[in-house]
Write a structure and sequence with these properties.
171 residues, mainly alpha, Globin-like
């Protein structure tokens, strides 16, 4: 009797779930370019190659500008690992891979970090150096740098509007 009730309960729960339409698997980002029938994700070597690139890039990034290590100095190891994973997933998705980026929007994530154009340029050079180290050649290298550079509009700190003395800034 108990087994029959357990089976009926399981079926009552599972049947509606099984009847729901399944969403198609996430495909490449619609912005991803395809060359010779392959996405940049595929041409770079897939997920493992992107993860390896991110792992090699992070030390280059920290060395690129003395301000950058201060941005992560208070993060726990778990937060650092989560950030690394978000970077891998975002690059995977943007290059046409099957990953789904579930992080916050870049403008929210980088708010208050005061990232300048100079810092951005140093990070792009650090990425270019990493790609050279990993022997990623053009046109794939240039294309990946361009994909990342497209993110800068949401990351670089916008200059604050100057207000006249004696006036209140509106929020």
């Amino acid at each position: 009797m108990k087994r029959t009730c357990a089976l009926l309960l399981f079926l009552a729960i599972a049947a509606p779930l099984a009847a729901q339409p399944q969403s198609p698997p996430m495909g490449p980002s619609p912005k991803a370019t395809i060359r010779d029938g392959k996405t940049l994700y595929q041409r770079l070597g897939g997920y493992d190659a992107i993860a390896k690139t991110v792992d090699a890039f992070l030390p280059h990034l920290l060395a690129a500008d003395p301000k950058i290590p201060n941005m992560i100095s208070g993060l726990s190891e778990a937060s650092r690992m989560r950030n690394r994973q978000m970077i891998v997933d975002q690059i995977c998705m943007l290059t046409g891979g099957p990953c789904v980026f579930v992080g916050r929007p870049n403008d929210v994530t980088h708010q208050g970090l005061e990232i300048t154009q100079e810092m951005w340029d140093k990070s792009q050079k650090a990425l270019a150096d990493t790609l050279d180290e990993l022997k990623v050649k053009d046109p794939d290298k240039s294309e990946l740098l361009a994909v990342i550079d497209n993110l800068k509009g949401d990351i670089i700190q916008k200059p604050k509007a100057a207000t006249k003395p004696g006036t209140k800034q509106q929020h």
